[in-house]
Design goal:
InterPro entries: Clp_N_dom_sf (IPR036628). It comes from Micrococcus lylae. This protein is an alpha+beta fold and 341 residues long. The protein folds into 2 domains: 171 residues, Clp, N-terminal domain (Double Clp-N motif, Orthogonal Bundle); 162 residues, 2-Layer Sandwich (Alpha-D-Glucose-1,6-Bisphosphate, Chain A, domain 4), CATH 3.30.530.20. The chain has 13 helices and 11 strands. It has an 8-stranded antiparallel sheet. It has a 3-stranded mixed sheet with strand order 1-3-2. Helix 2 crosses helix 3, helix 3 runs antiparallel to helix 5 and helix 5 crosses helix 8. The radius of gyration is 22 Å and the shape is elongated.
Length: 341
């Protein structure tokens, strides 16, 4: 077995001469490995397998998740397909699996200080992976073991139609971190750098909204690693190095068919009052939740205000290169919504 971090490190070395490929492949590998990690943990397994990676594609959404959903393939149906495939394999050996009973909830053993592991096949797959999520999923369907393809067929998939429905290589990465117009009314009158991430997710708009309006679920996403956060209705407040800052939920409203929610950071007393900057407004996260194709089109817009001369440069640069942060937020919202089941 190997650690997830080891596999991703090997992948980085493998693509060292291809910066664009690194960005695409690491983004996909991080999303898939993170979701597969949770899948394996929930089932009580000590290592991520190819089957966990397969189910992860349905869970994280995006173009691959949409292609699966269009054939009625969900995480639940893929799990059933995996079981049916295994039952058929054992039946060929004269072994009969016991009937499937009610799902058994296995207490998760997730520990942020514990490295999760991949089994040998999953590790080799991620180490050799290249391309976008669609390319990686196609490679998984073509895995030499033929087990992912067999599970898909057992779940009712038309592999030819599924492959044809996948987007062309490269087009399924436009969702991560593209330039965007500022959201009016949040940082008006200030220098602002704005980026947008967009992804279809296999969750209802109501489930997504329940996460993004709730203070407790947004606390680890907006203020990760902070334990002494004051939580109040529509407010997350913390003091660091004698300086207070807070996130306020400044919007929660219906906009046509969509729902918009916005969290904005503020510095009570001003961004730099000692330098005459008493404007309290800081960065924001604007979430647009739109019903789409039986799930939700989730659009995140992040606006950053630079503070001071160097801060304006640093703020703009951090926002432009914040693709991984956007993916973490998207994945975090989806995982929080699933945890509410």
């Amino acid at each position: 077995m190997t650690r997830v971090t080891d596999a991703v490190s090997t992948l980085t070395e493998h693509l060292a001469a291809k910066p664009a490929a690194i960005a695409r492949t690491l983004a996909a590998a991080q999303d898939i490995a993170g979701s597969a990690h949770l899948e394996a943990d929930a089932a009580g397994r000590g290592a991520v397998s190819l089957d966990d990676l397969l189910v992860a594609f349905a869970q994280i959404g995006g173009p691959v998740g949409q292609a699966l959903a269009a054939q009625g393939l969900t995480a639940e149906s893929l799990r059933a397909g995996i079981r049916d495939r295994d039952a058929a394999d054992l039946s060929a050996l004269g072994i009969t699996l016991p009937p499937a009973g009610e799902p058994v909830a296995v207490p998760g053993r997730l520990d942020p200080k514990r490295s999760f592991r991949l089994d040998a096949e999953a590790a080799r797959f991620l180490e050799k992976a290249a391309g976008t999520p669609a390319g990686m999923f196609a490679d998984l369907m073509d895995h030499p073991s033929r087990r992912p393809a067999a599970a898909l067929r057992a779940a009712g998939a038309d592999l030819h139609a599924l492959r044809a429905a996948l987007p062309p290589v490269g087009e399924d990465q436009a969702e991560d971190n593209s330039p965007a117009a500022p959201i009016p009314g949040l940082l008006d009158g200030l220098a602002e750098t704005t980026r947008r991430a967009e992804r279809w997710v296999p969750l209802s708009p109501e489930r997504v909204r329940d996460v993004v309006v709730a203070e407790e679920s947004m606390k680890p996403l907006l203020m990760p690693g902070m334990d002494d956060v004051l939580v109040a209705p529509g407010l997350l407040n913390v003091t660091r190095k004698g300086r207070e800052h807070e996130y306020r939920r400044v919007r929660d409203a219906q906009v046509g068919e969509a729902r918009e929610v916005a969290w904005q950071m503020f510095w009570p007393g001003g961004a730099k009052p000692d330098q005459g900057d008493t404007d309290e407004r800081g960065s924001y996260l604007h979430v647009l939740i739109t019903p789409a194709d039986g799930g939700t089109l989730l659009t995140l817009t992040r606006g950053v205000r630079g503070i001071g001369r160097l801060g304006r440069i640093a703020g703009a640069a951090a926002t432009v290169f914040s693709g991984s942060a956007n993916r973490s937020l998207l994945r975090g919202i989806v995982e929080q919504a699933r945890a509410r089941d």
